[in-house]
Amino acid sequence: MLIHYAIIVAVLLVYYIFWQLYKQDPLGMQFFEPSSTAGIVLQSLAILTTLTFIPLSLYLFKRSTTRLRELPTMEERIERYVPLATRRETLIMLPMLISEVLYFILGGCKPMLWLLGICAIAWVFCKPSERQMQIDLEDSPYDNRD
Length: 146
Known about the structure:
- This protein is mainly α.
- The protein has helices at residues 2-24, 26-29, 37-68, 74-105, 110-126, 130-137.
- Helix 1 runs parallel beside helix 4.
């Protein structure tokens, strides 16, 4: 499960690097004016990415874990669960990285910080625990409805 922490460390490292560059020359980092057409398009794409990737990752993960319940042993289920959880987190972190980079490219555009916060909250709630893994993988009596 170290990959989950490696992902967040990578995001924080990117933020730290951009922050150091931004502190040295705030206007030098700004490639687009936030109110320009290019700035609005970039912000819209970041919002669209966030609003699609988070629900999409949750849907794909739920669908995949439902299929895992058909495997005969719990060891096989757990073995296949970890890559699925990593994929879910990666899909959530991608818009986080995009909004993080756009925050600095757009010269400290505040809406990108909001998106960054939304993705961070989604990541925290999607980080798998041992109990959640058991809940996701155990057979449910409600799965075999006729």
